[in-house]
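Technical annex B. To support the medicinal chemistry partners, we prepared a structural model of the target in complex with NAP, based solely on the information shown next.
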Amino acid sequence: MNQYAVFGHPVAHSRSPWIHARFAAQFGFEQSYQAIDVPPETFEQILWDFGEAGGLGANVTLPLKEQAATLCDELSEAAQRARAVNTLIRLPGLRWRGDNTDGIGLVADFQRLGIELVGRRIVILGAGGATRGILGPLLAQGPREIVIANRTPERALQLALESGALGTVQAWALDELQALEAADVLVNATSAWRGEGMALAFGLVDAGTIAYDLSYGATAQPFLAQARQAGTAEVHDGLGMLVEQAAESFRHWRGVRPQTAPVLAELRTLVGH
Ligand code: NAP
């Protein structure tokens, strides 16, 4: 049976095995897709063992995405730009190609939601692995400006410099955001808003702002609730992105793209909100 997996630490919470089972069922494919908890220090060995045992592909989640990029023999342009890999594709001879489908997944979800990015002003909170993955694909949509705001401003600046579009991409410190005008699209790509202590800079949101949290379900709610209180009428969590990035991984492995809408609708009933 074709073997796939998601590697992370922890990984028990991952919805990927459920999503990929639904995708495989659409085509009548038989496959195994396991969640494998991998402490970073054992990742290289476990990936080798997985390949030797016939593993054909894997997803990679926190905190292994950057390490995964260093273990690949080839990287897609998106993975090179992100220096982070969320999809491993088996090559002949126990070699791996790495891709990053987070950005294409987010853009696909924006399209599903009818969110237009051309000429818009995007503010991204956070400059971690997720922002690395989404920055290039968001830039490719032709926004007027992308502001990256991070607690550690040097990381935001680094990303702005690496983007090759300094000026269109700007770096700010998270605690200076009160000086900014309202965003058209505000993306929370931090792992910070978990209910305690974080406050959305006043003025960053107005009635026209669309707020999107990359996390989903209950985890996304504190940030989205603050955005609603600040006046935005449109908020979304990252469940659609999760399903879309998974569909891109599936397409790499199987050569066909599954339908995402029925899987997202069913997953929404499980996750809630
Ligand atoms: P990460 O690499 O660990 O980065 C975390 C970011 O959060 C950094 O910018 C960090 O700032 C910031 N941060 C953490 N705690 C903070 C605090 N107390 N105050 C202010 N800033 C804080 O994580 P990631 O991989 O980028 O993931 C970010 C989020 O995106 C997670 O919730 C993840 O689940 C989600 N995600 C969702 C999908 C999807 O498919 N829906 C895909 C990828 C990621 P510093 O740089 O200052 O430390």
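Notes passed to the chemistry partners:
The chain has a mean pLDDT of 95.
The radius of gyration is 18 Å.
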